[in-house]
Structures are given as C-alpha cells and as structure tokens.
Amino acid sequence: MGELTQSQIAVILRLESGGPATTSGLARAEGMRPQSMGSIVVALQSAGMIQGVPDSSDGRQTVLSLTDACRKRLQEGRAMRQDWLSKTIATKLSSEEREQLASHLKLLMRLVED
Q: Of the four listed, 17, 67, 100, 106, which is most buried by Cβ atoms within 10 Å?
C-alpha cells in the first residue's frame, strides 16, 4: 500500500477490522472532521479500494466497505511480508535463536490476547 497516505491506510484497516461504516462513523472513530474524512473516502473510492451503497435504514447515508480488490491486495501484502520474515528467520538465526524467538513470541501473544 505504498502510494496511500497514513490516513487512507487507517481507514482501510478500520473498515477491515470493524466492518462497513459511514463517512461520519469513520470520522468519529479516527477523531477527525467529517469533511476531512470525506476527501479520504473520495480518494479511496477513486482508487477502487472502497465502495459505498445506500444505507438500507437511512437512504441519505452511504455505507462504505472494502472492495474485493482491496481485500486481495491486503492479503497478498501480508503474505509477502510473512514469507520474507519466515525466510529471514530461517537464514539469519541459528536453531537456538529460533527456539528463543518462539519462546518469546508465546509471551508476546499472551500480552496481546487481553
């Protein structure tokens, strides 16, 4: 997602984790004015990253969600980073260091599970 701004990436990740949302809902969640969020949304729609459909309960609002192309791009990016990390660990760390890393990862996972 190299050519996207930090704000655009934040919106994409919020839609991925939180599901569909309105522009005003995204603005509240990101702590910004709806007008500022509107320009981010327009840019992401133009890039084919998000799409909007009328809200079924309030046709004046648009519910935004990720496009299939965006989801695919996210998945491919994560797979590439994971592949790089796996190869780097395998080639640069000794077996003892890999065991230490695995042990420390278990501790880190405990911290983020809460």
A: 67
